[in-house]
Amino acid sequence: MQISRRSFLLGASAAAGALALGGLAGCARPGVAGDPVGPGAEVVRRLEAQRRTAGQAVVAAQVTARPVQVDLGGPVVSTWGYGDTLPGPLLRARAGDLLQVRVDNGLGVDTSIHFHGIAMSNDMDGVPGLTQEPIAAGESFTYEFTVPHPGTYFYHSHSGLQLDRGLYGVVVIDDPAEPGGYDDEWVVVLDDWVDGTGRTPDDVARELGMSTPGDPAPGTGGMGAMMDHGSMGGMMGGESMRSDLLGGAGDVNYPYYLLNGRTPADPVTLTAAPGRRVRIRLVNAASDTAFRVGLGGHAMTVTHSDGFPVTPVDTDAVLIGMGERFDVLVTLADGVFPLYAAAEGKPGHAVAVVRTAAGTATTDTRPVELDRQVLLGTALSPPEPVRLPRRSHDNYLSVDMGGTMAPYRWVLNGATFPDTAPLTVAQGQRVRMRLRNMSDMFHPMHLHGHTFALVDGGARKDTVTVRPMQTVEIEFDADNPGQWALHCHNAYHQEAGMMTTLSYRA
Hints:
This protein is mainly beta and 506 residues long.
């Protein structure tokens, strides 16, 4: 979010020490009355206190956001990061631990961190102007919260287009009762990359027709500028012609696609012995690209989505939208194989070499697995222990997605943030939400502070990819009070206004 465009007055509500949201919080949904419950409300502090336990383990970490030079496997780029490599430092704790992460801002501009997928206390959610003041240049902020659920998560800046630089890393929350069933674990992070290649994310935004901080007036590039720069995804040949499961691509074709920070010219190597069973934690940290992922010569078993277990499903490949995570199990054969992530609807790919024996692997040939059975997150179902308890809903919310490429404008219920009417709920409600995509672009919709169940299938998620002209219904329990962002996890759609607020009312 651009702070200049989306800054709100942070202050105490007369009723609950809540965030004063001005016009954003002024439109209550019929049947849900009262003042907005802000991040400083007593009910928020009380709920976090209830999560704390005697003898609770404390996991402390420190990250510094700063300008860095990163070797992408050939190209060396000047960018921003939380370390000298991509992704940033791995944060690891156990469910029930208290996680303390100090963030030092060495960027020279405001920043923040959002812990994506973790249902933490609202005051630690990391959305500047909504749940906290931004972390100013030269300042520090410590995020401190109890991590309630095991799973694969990640952290990233929630300020402007900083996600499309190098400001992200992975959070793994281990299950103290983990049954195991695997021998090794690999964390695999996918990304699309432009920063330091002669263009920045802000340059891309201008080409799309968006204004950025410091611009004297809104940009006028629109679709013409994107086509001039070859960035109209899905309009080019090659790999993109075979990729249509999402009904299109993102808005930007990138010069590089990365797997664990490396290009296909010099990929990372993942090594294990043949016959070993490996848990691969897949994270899509990209800003505008979904990936179709498969391991040449292997099938995979999907076991988790967005941190929560699913009924295991065998597949040849998975399609992972921005912000989604999948855990898969693979039993390794003897040889050298490409772990291949094709940019869905775009030319280009990311890749790693999986090695269990001597030899070479071809990293520029698309494995046949990617064109066999491909699994989407909406096709998953949960095992009974993590199924959302069955009950009728108390509140029905409807969110329509729309937008245009010229002018570049992406909306929820016909408005751009911060002019979107909040979606109001009351604590204790079962909420059903209809996510209806009225555009010709796919949208990975992410809800902060909650996991939801897909009504069709029931899988627990926090990010769901909604295809063009399709509808997905979700349900969740309103059990984490505060002011929570709901937005498209295409960073450019979000920045262009495709965001609203799930607003608890006292």
